[in-house]
Automatic annotation (TrEMBL):
Domain of life: Bacteria
Keyword match Ribosomal protein: no
InterPro entries xrefs: DeoD-type (IPR004402), Nucleoside_phosphorylase_CS (IPR018016), Nucleoside_phosphorylase_d (IPR000845), Nucleoside_phosphorylase_sf (IPR035994)
Subunit structure: Homohexamer; trimer of homodimers.
GO cellular component terms attached to this protein's record: cytosol
Primary enzyme class: transferase
Name of the molecule in the record: Purine nucleoside phosphorylase DeoD-type
Gene for this chain: deoD
Site (Important for catalytic activity) residue list: R218
Amino acid sequence: MGTPHNAAEKGEIASTVLMPGDPLRAKYIADTYLEDARCFNTVRNMLGYTGTYKGREISVMGGGMGMPSIGIYTYELYHRYEVEAIIRIGSAGALRDDIQLKDVVIGMGACTDSNYAAQYQLPGTFAPIADYRLLEKAVNTARVQGVNVKVGNILSSDIFYNDDDEVNAKWRKMGVMAVEMEAAALYMNAARAGKKALCMLTISNHLFRQESISASERQSGFGQMMEIALEL
């Protein structure tokens, strides 16, 4: 089978895929959490693995940076490999004062400055949202694990270095929790395919307090998020 971006054959990818941005993070997850993990993709070094967790088959694959990248990989997973659910696990910059470093936030909705939705030629503005059942299960799992997650609106931006110095303040005043670069495209691809998607994020920096965490601290916060995601 395969595609220009994925060498996997049909049946090599599980129905649920965890998707960090960094392909090396995908390798770390496979090595750390999955049993009998086998690599199904090395094209463009976008590593993908399938293994088992508590007896259940699960896959993990990198998605890259930005909506064009995750848009390609998730489209193919949904449409070419019969994947049913994709859970993005990544990092984000906090906007609101009540969001702290290493907090886990879940994107119930994903605002965006991207024109990704233009391809659907809709007669209005589409609101990209998470799958409710995945969202509910993630919140309940976090509660059992003693993790206080925050749920709400996030921003998926096409721009990392924005020329508008006021852009973050404008989103912040609308209550947006944090900014990342992929969830909106994931949610739109899932909606169009009739599939499931969720975005979970660990806060790595705060955009209004000039705070950030080290690589080792990011790893510990990421582990907390992973233990929730793996139960979904």
